[in-house]
Amino acid sequence: GRAGAVAAVDLGATSGRVIIGHVGRDTLHLDHVARFANGPVRLASGLHWDLTGLLAHALDGLAQAVHAESAIASVGIDSWAVDYVLMRGDRMLGEPFHYRDDRTAGGVEAVHAVAGFDELYTRNGLQFLAFNTLYQLAADRRDGHLDVADTALLVPDALAFQLTGSRVTERTNASTTGLLRVADAQWDTELMARLQLPAGLFPDLVDPGTSLGTLRPALAEQVGAALEVVTVGSHDTASAVVAIPMADPETSAYISCGTWGLVGLELDKPVTTDAARLANVTNEGGVDGRVRFLHNVMGLWLLSESVRQWERDSGQAIDLPTLLADAAEVPAASVAVFDANDPVFLAPGDMPGRIAHWYRSHDLPVPATRAAFARAIVESLAEAFARTVRTVAELAGREVDTIHVVGGGALNTLLCQRTADRAGLTVLAGPVEATALGNVLVQARAHGWLGRDATLEDMRALVSRTTAPRRYSPRA
Ligand code: LFR
């Protein structure tokens, strides 16, 4: 069958990458061509993206990709959700805020004074997260930024605009703004009016797999090819879910585990019952209109941010595999579980200090060594994962027998095993690169390489044939 090559630009919490995907009916293979830093920048105004720097790195990476593989047909961009750049005409009004900036507390109050969480949940189906776009926009409105902006572009859409000049809003990412109706995945213009957000602030919605045209001529020259830009599940989690090799979504749960642990199910229809709202479970929009019924658990952020603090303290690099091997030797029963969902862990900074404070304020012993800390983090994540799988299954009325773990967390054997143990369910770990795979698969389908009517199930079957998951059986 026909196969071809596409490029993925994936912007994650610590790095951005440019990856080539070779995709066809029997082919699915990634080549990593470029990696660059993507940490938040602390400007005087708060925590920001460096979107301009990322654009330059992405262009360099695409030039390298074209150099390595001249037949690249298109590029797709994904990143984390909710963040956006304000524009006036073609001009960016400053670097976008990073969602871990704490300016949104006032935004939450302002929004809830107009529409309470119960009402919001029936309209948009989203779990409460203080950084959701609508709260960030309320903070911007308070600070006067919306007086000069005419458009807001979600981050992957903002990069696509820089590349092509096309202004769109990709639908899976739009579903995380709080401004999309869960019932029909269209803009909630009535809510926007009540929140005094300008009508048409976000451009028209498009689905994954839509062509946005080719690179602007100057950029095509720089990259060495007039690449087409194609939308993908531009919310990284939406792309990751595309590539989860679920044999049967009815009996499978998943954990997209990187910086965050997104724990949930794929559904055909949203569940916005009182019980789902009280459990704070979200209904985000997936590729092909599927629903990502999930809850955000803090994820490996707890570990990576702890490691960063210990490295700052000691001035020495910490080897993560060694730390995790030491953690595996610490008896599970010797560490207490903490609440991995506590919002005190959201902001960057001294993570071991905040975890120690959590233990002390709950009258529980603070882990005595770094290995014990790491073990406590793994146990607490595994417990939150297992509990959340039970919750989402119960809320959706499903019998789950398998948990798929994808993303970087699939490499963490201790976490996978302890999740299996605490859930009493089989864990299938991998692929690690689910997000990039989902990105390139959706582009390949748009090009007709998988058959135009290829379904998510067809794409997942291809993932199954080309990557072997690692199995963890629950232990007593
Ligand atoms: C994961 C993710 C989550 C979203 C969080 C913030 O990278 O996209 O799905 O809730 O980041 O945007």
UniProtKB/TrEMBL annotation:
Residues 253-446 form the Carbohydrate kinase FGGY C-terminal domain. One of its GO terms (cellular component) is cytosol. Residues 7-242 form the Carbohydrate kinase FGGY N-terminal domain. The keyword Nucleotide-binding applies. One of its GO terms (biological process) is rhamnose catabolic process. Keywords: ATP-binding, Disulfide bond, Kinase, Nucleotide-binding, Rhamnose metabolism, Transferase. One of its GO terms (molecular function) is rhamnulokinase activity. It comes from the Bacteria. Belongs to the FGGY kinase family. This is Rhamnulokinase. It comes from Microbacterium caowuchunii.
